[in-house]
Amino acid sequence: MKRLLIIMLLAVGISAQAQNRKQNRNVGGRLTLGVRSTVSLFSDDGGNKGMGAGGQFRLRFYDFMNSEWFGDYIMTSIGTVGTRTDYHVGWSVMFYAPSKKGFKMYRPKPYLLVGHCFDYTSFHGTNPFYQSYASASRWSSAVQGGLGFHIPFTEKVDLSVSGQYMMHLGKEVLAEERTAGNGDKFLHAELQDNAGLDGHLLVSFSLNVQIADLWRDHGKHGGAGTAAPDPDGQNPNYIQQ
Amino acid sequence: MRKSIFLLSAIFSVSFLNAQTTPPPAEDNTFQMTTLEGLLRLQATITPAWSVSGKSGDQSASVSSGRTNIYIHGTAEYYWRDHFSTRADLFYFVNKNNVDGGLKHNHSVQVGASYHFNKKMTIDPFIGVTTGLSVEQIYPVTMSRGDGVTWLYPAPAHIDPIWAPRVGVNFFGQHIFHFFVEAEYLMGSYRPPVGPTLSLNEIRVSAGLGFNFVLFHKETTVRPGI
Fold first, then answer.
1. Closest CA of chain A from B28, distance in Å
2. pTM confidence score
3. How does pLDDT run across B171-206, given as a tens digit for each residue?
4. Which one of B55, B136, B194, B215 would you mutate to disrupt binding with A, by most A Cβ within 10 Å of its Cβ?
5. DSSP per residue, B8-37
6. Which helix (H) or strand (E) holds A20?
7. ipTM surpasses cut 0.90
8. If contacts are CB pairs under 8 Å, which of residues 136-175 in chain B contact chain A?
9. Within its chain, how far is the Cα of A225 from the centroid?
10. What SS3 class is residue A101?
11. Interatomic CA distance for residues B83 and B13, integer angstroms
């Protein structure tokens, strides 16, 4: 009889936990997974526009602070004679304005982002007849900063747009178009000994889906289970994603 | 005392269980659909595609050279809300063009989102955008040097980023199936490390029959008459 009583009390406790967990509406601990498309608009060397694809996950720490961990693969043409490939792996911290506006679908939520990134860049000449000095590559480290905004489509899905300037510190690469004696144009790429700064403006479009809520509500936003879902923006206690 | 505690515990347990029970289906034992929320739409079809004269650097060049490409196209789309869905698409290139520089591989995977303009009607027009990666390769291509020397160069396969805006319409008129027609304008470039850079731009048109599955079912998930 005692065992049965204990089991039933435990069941009640677990049920209550489950109910509270379902109603957890604090944004801290939210883990989202996303895909992104990135456009490299211009670079210091006046290169062409590049296009890239990648992925990211975001871990939200507080209502005003989020983090983004991303990877990008960007391809850019160097005139008609070569291609530049950039691989980025990095992270950014995103800061939101400290407001308590109610969640409303399609209302943009702006943020400021700053971060750090590692980069591998390779240059290739595309003309197979001129391959002697047609490729070079380098590793570099970068810092980036910019602005962006989320547009929430549901409580769990959002579209984000961000523009950021990424500044790389690494060895310089000389990549220039040259003309052979027979009139052919080709890429001459060569890794230089000196280090320098090289930057580009990146605009990213990403689609993000919340996949987990890693920790429970605590603190001033009412704790677990106090704020009900509020898709219509009527509940002032509900914090936007 | 024990009896009272036992009784109270039993009552609370039952009430919590009730709180978590899914609402029962309608009386006639069929789900009543009122929105598309929660619907998973699967489709597979054969897709023709027509290239658009793209620009590769300073030269105009297209990977399919004005030929009609054919793909096997599969889609999975989930409706988070009546007006918003996310989707994943797979394209497998079928009709290889075994000529000098002809297209050998052009397969792609895309992920994206759509906005639906439906107003509880069975006709579901939408616009959307997808982004992804494409793996392409061309058959060996003759490349010539300024002094007349030629080389049948075997250009390697390469993975390149792509993106595509799309527009389409679904017609939900049946329990299990739906009809669809859609078009996407795919944009990207084939950029092998060594070899010609070619435009991948083309318009892909898909039409056919899709399947409906209802996930995370709510009482209001399934549309009447479907």
1. 31
2. 0.77
3. 987 677 889 999 999 999 998 888 888 889 999 999
4. B194
5. HHHHHHHHHHHHHSPPPPPTTSS--B---T
6. helix A2-22
7. no
8. 143, 145-147, 149, 151, 153, 159-163
9. 30
10. coil
11. 38
